[in-house]
User: Which sequence fits this backbone?
């Protein structure tokens, strides 16, 4: 069975409480290229937990589809939904984690560096869902992880403790600091994300003040290794967390990183609902 038909007659539902350019397009194109179908359900159409209970929506969609990609504000909503679903549920983003993004990032790093183990990734900015998933992914694969965040925006403590358990087995070094220069010095990968995520708009002014000094610009990037790459999961707020010369510069792999999300999702969907067995290294 070829890639073009491996998901023939399979249906994926996109259940999104938050809008998304990259994840919606990536999932839809991935399903189309593998011969499957995709349906998009917007917040106004479903009203998850308001117009209809989370449990009932899960039961209903389980009867129509082969897989559901859910993008919710709350991790608890996703976990409740998954507990009532009879088909696989993919975390397309919650306030706590962003695992699909982390998988695409690992793919991109491996593509550019030829390895993961022993590399050092420096994350500059908010200890948000992207940082949480990247930390877990790094700890599982033996990639050293440094994060520089303001005091009130550090990475989730529970996630950090779990990552440290993984790191004890993989040999990963985890370093948390409030100094971006300490994190970036001699790093192989420099990564940042927006200071104000979707749903945090009321905090925008407060966050801009708190993150002063955490911008990834040419001066900060120059502290990384000579062959370091720059990453951002997008959308970017140019002039805030990153400058144009960095995101558009020769070290940036941001748009390849974005494209790789689609390729990674093809592999994920092919394995989850297409019966394809993808051999992976045992990092645990």
Assistant:
């Amino acid at each position: 069975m070829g890639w073009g038909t491996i998901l023939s007659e399979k249906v994926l539902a996109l259940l999104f409480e938050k809008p998304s350019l990259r994840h919606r397009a990536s999932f839809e194109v991935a399903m189309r290229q593998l011969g499957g179908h995709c349906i998009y359900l917007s917040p106004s159409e479903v009203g998850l937990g308001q117009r209809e209970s989370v449990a009932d929506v899960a039961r209903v969609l389980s009867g129509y589809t082969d897989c559901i990609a859910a993008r919710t504000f709350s991790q608890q909503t996703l976990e409740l939904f998954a507990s009532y679903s009879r088909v696989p549920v993919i975390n397309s983003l919650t306030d706590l984690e962003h695992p699909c993004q982390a998988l695409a990032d690992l793919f991109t790093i491996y593509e550019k560096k030829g390895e993961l183990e022993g590399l050092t990734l420096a994350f500059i900015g908010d200890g948000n869902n992207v940082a949480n998933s990247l930390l877990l992914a790094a700890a599982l694969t033996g990639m050293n992880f440094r994060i520089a965040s303001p005091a009130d925006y550090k990475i989730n403590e529970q996630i950090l403790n779990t990552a440290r358990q993984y790191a004890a087995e993989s040999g990963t070094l985890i370093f948390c600091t409030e100094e971006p220069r300490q994190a970036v010095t001699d790093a192989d990968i420099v990564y940042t994300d927006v200071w104000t995520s979707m749903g945090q708009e009321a905090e925008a002014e407060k966050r801009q003040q708190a993150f002063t000094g955490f911008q990834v610009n040419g001066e900060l990037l120059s502290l990384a290794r000579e062959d370091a790459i720059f990453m951002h999961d997008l959308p970017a707020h140019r002039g805030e967390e990153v400058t144009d010369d960095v995101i558009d510069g020769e070290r940036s792999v941001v748009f390849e990183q974005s494209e790789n999300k689609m390729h990674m999702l093809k592999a994920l969907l092919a394995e989850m609902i297409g019966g394809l067995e993808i051999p992976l290294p045992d990092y645990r």
Q: What stands out?
A: The chain has two domains: 11-95+258-273, 101-247. The chain is about 40% helix and 15% strand.
